[in-house]
Amino acid sequence: MDETRRLRGAVIGLGNVAVHGHLPGWRQRADAVIVAATDLYPGRRAECAAALPGARWHESVDSLLAGDDLDFVDVCTPPSSHATLIEAALAHGLHVLCEKPLVASLTELERLAGLARAARAVLHTVHNWHQAPLVRATDALIREGRIGAVREVAWRTLRTQPAAAAGGESWRVDPAVAGGGVLTDHGWHVSYVVPRWVGAPPDAVSARLETRRHHRFAVEDTATVRLQFPDAMADIVLTWAAETRENQAHVIGTTGRIDIEGDTVVLRVDGREERHRHPPALSDGSQHPDWFGPVADEFIARVLGRDPSSRNLDEAAVCIAVECGARESSRRGGALLPLAARVGAAG
Q: For residue 346, is it within any domain?
């Protein structure tokens, strides 16, 4: 690929995550430009004109894939459409950046990863919480050995309701569209962040899914999950039924601990405490435009062949395995179920 020209991309799906999360990042880049867009809802053509005045609007995905000279697509649609759209883009030889959750099963991931390899195309999912300043600071302290080997992690994602969707009630509460409730929406993030902190994928999971408040939803509003690692344990609570909106995280090692409190990382070692602010708090906003730039950096580096060692799809495989295992565990009353020793699908 000619690295001297700007890569030409298209956005599929112009909901909140695209307009407020991805497009601000794409507009700032000198190495890529969004030249086309489409959405299932024609009314979002106005969003396209406002956010991407130089982009061509297409009435359908088929028109977009056939009608523009593209290098990649950025898929920002609800989860139920991901696999179909990824396959269509790969069939046109295009690289694909896709919002989480990427797909719903390891079998589906393996199939699409195989199609990507055959097309010599990159398939990459948006693991943007790795780029949160608080998460990056915590990861750096762990990698520096400041708390020794990680042995315990506690994570709490507290919300009063699901994130809003453009144009009406959130698709996140429709199982036919979202695939699941709070576990699908927030569990994916935890399932790639926590294993990186621990330094290994989980080997077993137990979970209980329930509805505590939002009984009109056809999906769970609360998930309590335990991930077992070879030498560590993580306890996770995810809920849309809280009284407040906040995130909490605690990482306990053999020689110290790290606590994420609001927008501050607190390191506690040998009775001493260090506090460092790394705003914003993890609970600030839903689209996180400031976290998208590094995601696009990684994606484009892979497209240009500069990052052959990316483990992005292996992380996606862990996320899928954890969710599928957690749902089965809940069906079995919270039983501890083994996960594959290596759940990576693609490389």
A: no
In whole angstroms, give the CA distance from residue 188 to residue 195: 12
The tens digit of pLDDT for each residue in 232-274 reads 999 999 999 999 999 999 999 999 999 999 999 999 999 999 9
Q: Tokens 């009984």: give the residue.
A: 215
Are 248 and 160 in a shared domain?
yes
β-pairing, 32-38 vs 7-12, is parallel
For residue 74, CA distances in Å to 57, 96, 185, 313, 324 come to: 15, 6, 19, 16, 25
Q: Where is the domain boundary, 92, 110, 128?
A: 128
Q: What is the extent of the structural domain holding 279?
A: 130-294+313-338
Regarding whether 241 and 159 lie in a shared domain, the answer is yes
Does this model's pTM top 0.90? My answer is yes
Angle at the Cα of 336 from the Cα atoms of 330 and 339, rounded to 5 degrees: 100
φ/ψ (deg, to 5) at 273: -130, 135
